[in-house]
TrEMBL record:
InterPro entries assigned: Cyclase_SnoaL-like (IPR009959), NTF2-like_dom_sf (IPR032710)
One of the GO BP terms on file: polyketide metabolic process
Gene3D superfamilies attached to this UniProt entry: 3.10.450.50
A Pfam family matched in the record: SnoaL
Organism domain of life: Bacteria
Protein name: Putative ester cyclase
C-alpha cells in the first residue's frame, strides 16, 4: 500500500513538471487514462484540461507550479501548490501589466494502474485577478 502511494506521488510530481511547468501537453497520454474525467475545467475531459494549460502558458509563459505539500492514500493524491509567474497576456478582461503572480492552489488526483483517472483543482482566482490588476497580495 505504501509503495503504491509513493508511486502515485511520483507520477503526480512528473505530471506537474511536464504538463503545467513545461507545457508539454503532447505528453498528456503518458499520465492520463483514456477514461479520464476532469472536475475543474470545461469540457470535463482531456480537451478541457489541455485547453487550460494552453491558457496558462499564454497569460504567464514563465509560470511555475511549486509543490508545497503532497499527501497520498490508497489511490488518491492531494497537493497544495504555489503558482508563480508574470502576467503577460489578457485574462478575464484584465490586460497585462507585467505584474508578478503568486497564488495558492489545491489539486486532487485519483490514479488507477499508474494513470490519472480523475482530477480536480481549486485556485484562488480572486487573488489571481487582484494580483493581475496590480493590487497587493493578501
Amino acid at each position: 500500500m505504501q509503495d503504491q502511494a509513493k508511486a502515485n506521488k511520483t507520477i503526480v510530481r512528473e505530471y506537474i513538471e511536464e504538463i503545467w511547468n513545461r507545457g508539454l501537453i503532447e505528453r498528456f497520454g503518458s499520465f492520463f487514462a483514456t477514461e479520464y474525467q476532469e472536475a475543474a475545467y470545461s469540457p470535463a475531459n482531456s480537451e478541457g484540461h489541455c485547453a487550460m494549460v494552453a491558457v496558462q502558458k499564454r497569460i504567464m509563459p514563465d509560470a511555475v507550479w511549486s509543490i508545497e505539500r503532497m499527501t497520498a492514500e490508497d489511490d488518491s493524491v492531494m497537493c497544495e501548490l504555489t503558482l508563480r509567474g508574470t502576467h503577460q497576456a489578457a485574462f478575464k478582461g484584465v490586460e497585462p501589466a507585467g505584474n508578478s503572480i503568486h497564488v495558492r492552489a489545491y489539486r486532487t488526483f485519483v490514479l488507477k494502474d499508474g494513470k490519472i483517472v480523475h482530477h480536480s483543482a481549486l485556485l484562488d482566482t480572486a487573488e489571481l485577478l487582484k494580483q493581475m490588476r496590480g493590487q497587493q497580495a493578501a
